[in-house]
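Hi X.,

You mentioned you wanted examples for the new student's onboarding notes, showing what a folding record looks like when two proteins sit in one file. Here is a clean example. The first protein comes first, with its sequence line followed by its structure tokens.
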Amino acid sequence: MKIPLTLKKLFRRRIVLAAGICLLVVVGVALLANVVSGYDPNDTAVRERLSAPTAQHLLGTDELGRDLFARIAYGARYSLTIAALTAIGSIVLGTLFGLVAGFFRRLDAPIMRVVDAMMSFPDILLAIALVGILGPSMLNVVLALVLVYTPRVARVVRASTLVVRELLFVEAARAVGVSTARILLRHILPNLMSPILVQASFIFAYAILAEAALSFLGVGVPPEIPTWGTMVAGSQQYAHQALWIVLFPGLAIILTALSLQLLGDGIRDLLDPRLRKSM
């Protein structure tokens, strides 16, 4: 099977290749959690509570005797789903607002003042406030994080749109009477895919960290849903007895977020014309 040239260039750097492999393993474990874990994540065995890692329980057990590897594997599904939905929602809304603000001069100022106002608050504080208003649930966490990260995308897309709309091919399209919608969708949007893809990878990573932080603070996903954040939050009081129940979910969060960041850097370098020749 021939590997596409684009992938060869993307993974030419070893650190990006390692990040891609790590992310692929995490996604594979999440998709095949019921196969690779061998345990139900909610099955309790009080006699085996806080057991150290063994051949039977690869990552040990938690305070209720639940298999930690199974909970991390199933938790990957929830954590990655929240992050993916956040990235998709932020990209769609941010691209829409950024295109409108960048192309229509009259709408630029009001839209960007709202964006600036939202970005004046620290991300985690704004997310806590929104979840507090909406209530703790998986859907509300996604909605809150989408609202938090949409302004980031809007600013990037707006800046790129301001440049692209002044290019000759856009002026030519206007001169021959091409509709505004067609200009936006067929001429401007395709030229914005590079920054949009990079932002998507970064927001994916940010969302994993933000969900973990919200769950750790007790305002995120309900405790019965085994995300990586709720695992760390629920087990912190037992960390002095069994470090692994906090260590392994924390490592899952760190490795996944770091892999996404490195992959995003690789995509940015690949799509940047100034760096493409050196890759």
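Then the second protein repeats the pattern, sequence line and then tokens:
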Amino acid sequence: MWPESVRRWTRRRFSPDGRLGLRLTLACAAVFLVAVPFVVLLALVNARWAPLRHLDDVATVDTNTFVLRHRALAGPLRATAYVFHPWVFRVIVLALAAWLLFRGARRLAALAVVNVLVAGVLSAGLKTAVGRPRPTLLSPIAHAGGASFPSGHALMTVVGTATIVLIVLPVLRGVWRAVAWTAAAVLSVVSGMCRVLLGVHYVSDVVAGWILGVAIVLATTAVFEAWRRGEGRHPADPLREGAGPEARASIAGDDHA
């Protein structure tokens, strides 16, 4: 038999009123598990760990050679620097936040703004703190300013697309939810890969951007779930229902609440 203390804890956690604590515990664990690889990667980059440097250098030279051999790719790749630019996602998400605020979905508007701000501050702060130079190539096909680690394009694509999906998910049904998450994942992967193919980021820069982006979204979503539950809302599954399922009518335009 389990001790009474364990049975009481289980009843609290799995009761309708106690699920929030369990969800937040799992969310914190998820953030931790995602953040650990980023911290390890950051430490290896700072230490200039030889195997990682070799991997980055080889990947950078090989991808640059591939693009130089297929010159037709150069133009479209350069275009992705603008299509996936962090400011593109910032403007889209902030415009969406303004619309949500107008529609009365203040929690979702706040989530959108916070995600953009946190991603921007962390990206700029880490670039300054790490100060990693960008790749140097004999025949570069593109140039970019600033430091290299982490990739701001990769980071903001993850945060921007995930934020949009979390907001619109309540109005999607069935397979369209999977389509939305798949589209966000594909755009994030393509954005990061293009940065490496352009020769303006190392592979580790891009991977760091992806990991940090996921960690930001997980952390802010957990915080906002606690906020909505503090207002008496029922627990939600963000992956299926989005960050604010109760705002479905406002998002869909069914009312002006």
